[in-house]
From TrEMBL:
Cell compartment(s), UniProt: Cell membrane
Name of this protein: Large-conductance mechanosensitive channel
Entries under SUPFAM superfamilies matching the protein: Gated mechanosensitive channel (SSF81330)
Pfam families linked to this entry: MscL
Organism this protein belongs to: Adlercreutzia faecimuris
Its membrane topology: Multi-pass membrane protein
Length: 155
């Protein structure tokens, strides 16, 4: 039980919880905006196109006895549009974040050019070895110096 509590404490201290909380709050706020867009702009537009009377979408609602709304295809279409807009924006945010993260992690040369990092290789068998290794795990040769990555200008 103590191990579980210490793991939980480590998880909270890592900062992931705060990032997740901010994401949930921003997602909820953005979802409210998208819901307003679909219910206040897109739905009336669908009603205008399909000839609705302002209270229901003509041709997109099938009345069912014993239910208040019946089968409402307009509401379903609105939910799909709502989901697609939120998913698209989340995709763009994640893509922009990953691009920023990648740009910050690139190594730059003396002149500011972006450098590609190449994993260290054994000079004997030319297999990839881990950085800092003093012996090749493939051919067991002793390396002349601890393995270090090489950097070449990006093409």
């Amino acid at each position: 039980m103590k191990n579980l509590i210490s793991e939980f404490r480590e998880f909270i201290n890592r900062g992931n919880v705060m990032d997740m909380a901010v994401g949930v709050i921003i997602g909820a706020a953005f979802t409210a905006i998208v819901t307003s867009l679909t219910s206040d702009i897109i739905n009336p537009f669908i009603k205008l196109i399909t000839g609705g009377n302002g209270t229901e979408v003509a041709g997109l609602t099938i009345p069912v006895a014993g239910t208040e709304n019946g089968i409402d295809f307009g509401a379903f279409i609105s939910a799909i549009i709502n989901f697609l807009i939120v998913a698209w924006v989340v995709f763009l945010i994640v893509k922009a974040f990953n691009k920023m993260k990648d740009a910050g992690s690139k190594v730059r040369g003396k002149n500011g050019e972006v450098m590609d990092e190449k994993a260290p290789e054994c000079p004997f068998c030319l297999e990839e070895v881990r950085e800092g290794a003093t012996r090749c795990p493939h051919c067991a040769a002793e390396l002349p110096a601890p393995a270090t990555p090489t950097f070449t200008p990006a093409e």
